[in-house]
């Protein structure tokens, strides 16, 4: 038996005193509860309130209308994303494997219908309902023509509010966009998009996708340093530190070839899996498993133990 093993099994011959574990646990629980409650009451929560469609529509109505027109045109991120929402794009892939296509469309989302035309059916405005009926009755080519002309006019003017919408040049599109804006500003649209799948407002997939298509949400993220090129995964809202243990994941987004890759998410996920498996099987890897003995950092950390036991 080794000397280290003998030391571990040696019977304690030092001083002893009574110890009440339950009493210490109760005291610790009370102290921690009081501290947490007191600090929470003083400092409040570091998290910002959730962003809603109503907030977006009220604070950036021009961006809301521009995004709505983009949904009708099928040019937004959601409309061209691909699986699991639609078949408009190929999505992420690893070599010959098209990962998102393999999974298929599991959460069907048609932005033009789900975000715009379906919610507009709940409008109380007669003009909006007439515009919606005109839109649905028009052939697809006519719809595309209206949207393309209105999109070009917005880009030229720089603001939907500066576009002259009189006449039939843009068809029902301006009225539909204004009608959806009114629904959002009155807080109706949030409820409509969260209850399309279930009667309970618990599925936020559609409002989140709609928000992400606009520029307002992106600007909020940039202001909070949450973009990928801002090491966003390491930050929470405000000036509070985030999850520093995620640095190993977010690190790869800052370097090539991942930084400029369209499949960075899949490639980095694979990289992390390989590194994780390497750590798991490190004790079994030849030569690698000898490093602790060749580089005895543990003896430096536990030097008092080794010194006291002459090891």
What does this structure look like?
With 311 residues, this protein is an all-alpha fold. It has two domains: 171 residues, no CATH class; 59 residues, no CATH class. It contains 17 helices and no strands. It is elongated. The two termini are 14 Å apart.
Strand fraction equals under 5%
Rounded to the nearest angstrom, the distance between the terminal CA atoms is 14 Å
The dominant shape is: elongated
Task: Give the helix level as a range of percent.
Answer: 40-55%
Low-confidence segments, given as residue ranges, are none
- Number of separate helices: 17
Q: How many structurally independent domains?
A: 2
Number of strands: 0
Computed CA radius of gyration, to the nearest angstrom: 29 Å
Helix/strand order, N-terminal first? HHHHHHHHHHHHHHHHH
Q: Would you tell me the structural class of the helices and strands?
A: mainly alpha
Please state the average pLDDT score.
87
- Largest beta-sheet details: none
Summarize this entry quickly.
This protein has 17 helices and no strands. The protein is an all-alpha fold and 311 residues long.
Observed structural traits:
311 residues, mainly alpha, 54% helix
Describe how the helices and strands are arranged.
Elements: H1 3-9, H2 21-43, H3 53-59, H4 61-73, H5 99-103, H6 111-120, H7 126-137, H8 140-157, H9 173-185, H10 188-194, H11 205-213, H12 215-223, H13 247-250, H14 264-280, H15 291-294, H16 297-301, H17 303-308
Helix pairs in contact: 3-4, 3-9, 4-6, 4-8, 4-9, 6-9, 7-9
């Amino acid at each position: 038996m080794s000397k280290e093993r003998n030391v571990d099994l040696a019977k304690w011959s030092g001083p002893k005193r009574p110890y009440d574990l339950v009493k210490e646990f109760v005291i610790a629980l009370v102290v921690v509860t009081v501290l947490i409650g007191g600090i929470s009451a003083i400092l409040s929560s570091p998290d910002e309130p959730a962003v809603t469609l109503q907030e977006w529509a009220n604070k950036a109505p021009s961006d809301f209308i521009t995004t709505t027109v983009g949904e009708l045109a099928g040019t937004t991120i959601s409309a061209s994303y691909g699986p699991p929402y639609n078949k408009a794009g190929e999505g992420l892939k690893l070599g010959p494997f098209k990962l998102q296509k393999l999974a298929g469309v599991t959460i069907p989302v048609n932005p033009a219908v789900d975000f715009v035309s379906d919610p507009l059916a709940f409008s109380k405005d007669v003009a909006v309902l007439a515009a919606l009926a005109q839109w649905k009755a028009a052939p697809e080519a006519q719809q595309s023509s209206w949207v393309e002309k209105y999109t070009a006019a917005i880009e030229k003017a720089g603001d939907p509010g500066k576009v002259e919408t009189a006449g039939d040049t843009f068809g029902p599109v301006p009225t539909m966009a204004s009608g959806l804006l009114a629904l959002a500003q009155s807080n109706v649209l949030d409820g409509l998009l969260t209850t399309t799948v279930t009667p309970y407002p618990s599925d936020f997939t559609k409002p989140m996708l709609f928000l992400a298509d606009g520029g307002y949400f992106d600007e909020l993220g940039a202001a909070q340093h949450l973009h990928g090129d801002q090491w966003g995964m390491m930050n929470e809202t405000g000036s509070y530190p985030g999850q520093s243990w995620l640095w190993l994941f977010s690190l790869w987004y800052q370097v090539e070839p991942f930084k400029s890759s369209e499949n960075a998410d899949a490639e980095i996920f694979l990289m992390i899996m390989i590194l994780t498996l390497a750590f798991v099987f490190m004790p079994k890897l030849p030569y690698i498993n000898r490093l602790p003995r060749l580089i005895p950092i543990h003896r430096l950390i536990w030097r008092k133990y080794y010194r006291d036991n002459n090891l």
